[in-house]
Specification:
membrane; 4-stranded antiparallel beta sheet; globular; single chain; 1 helix; 25 strands; 2 domains; mainly beta; Neuraminidase; 5-stranded antiparallel beta sheet; transmembrane helix
Length: 288
């Protein structure tokens, strides 16, 4: 083959390779940049931006919002957001704080980064409540505090503040990710790697509630139903299992969704870790 033909061939080959690589490069970019989409009847806006590794949220009775930054190696922290939007560091030196719950007149704090106690942050003081391993999520029914461990052969735990006893409600879980206690006494949890949500049963086998999810990351019981978020890097969703048992996609095209909490009536706050921000989700008036 002559030098001229060889050069033409190489140019043609590079052109073909360049064209073929466009979809491979463009598709991940599309997934990364595509804006969040809300379903009909819902809207959203950015509530607070630029919070690296935002994860857990809980709002106290005075309206202050507590926020965890899920950093490992003692770099994690708990922030407090006042109504004017200012942030104050309430607790630092944590390892992947990824579970918050109002409890005992303060905020219970779990750490996913290893064998650390669940802490109670009350005012400017902290105290250990009980020991656990890789605690991912916390929930309270007003008396008991529930915790779930994100590890192979993890446990679903129940802490009684009166006796100090910790009871294992379920063990052998595969990456337990979320736990929520409903006002009517029902208890739901997820196993992230299994892609399912189950309802805990005091006797007998736990009930499978929803399967086929993409890394379910957080649960919330509310008057609207059972909320489920997906902790997937791309194409994550905020889902609502309504009282009729229908699964609705409320927000789509999200990145690593963490906590959803009810804030004011008709509004929710959603931590979108993949974009370092908190969104405010609002139910729109009929006809909007």
């Amino acid at each position: 083959m002559s030098m001229q033909l060889r050069q033409k061939y190489l140019r043609w080959l590079m052109l073909v390779l360049g064209i073929s690589l466009v979809p491979a490069i463009g598709y991940p970019a599309w997934r990364h940049l595509y804006p969040v989409a809300a379903s009909q009847g819902w809207g959203y806006q950015v509530f607070h931006a630029d919070i690296p590794k935002v994860s857990a949220l809980v709002q106290d009775e005075q309206g202050a919002l507590f926020i965890s930054q899920e950093l490992s190696g003692g770099k994690g922290s708990i922030l407090k957001r006042e109504s004017d939007g200012s942030l104050t560091t309430m607790l630092s030196g944590l390892s992947k704080p990824d579970g918050l719950a109002l409890y005992g007149g303060g905020v219970a704090v779990g750490q996913e980064g290893g064998k650390f106690p669940v802490l109670l942050l009350r005012g400017n003081q902290t105290e250990p409540l009980f020991g656990a391993d890789d605690v991912e999520s916390l929930a309270s029914d007003g008396h008991f505090l529930y915790a779930i461990e994100d590890k192979k052969l993890g446990r679903l735990l129940r802490f009684d503040p009166l006796s100090g006893e910790v009871v294992t409600l379920r063990d052998g879980l595969d990456e337990g990710e979320a736990i929520t206690a409903c006002a009517d006494g029902r208890l739901f949890y997820t196993e992230k790697s299994k892609g399912w949500v189950k309802q805990w049963q005091a006797s007998g086998e736990d009930t499978l509630v929803q399967a086929g999810l993409n890394a379910p990351g957080f649960l919330l019981c509310s008057a609207d139903g059972l909320w489920i978020t997906e902790d997937a890097t791309h194409m994550a969703r905020v889902l609502l299992l309504d009282p009729e048992g229908q699964l609705q996609v409320i927000l789509d095209h999200m990145r690593s969704v963490q906590t959803i909490i009810a804030s004011t009536p008709g509004n929710y706050l959603v931590a979108e870790q993949g974009r370092d921000r908190i969104l405010e989700l609002t139910r729109l008036p009929s006809g909007s």
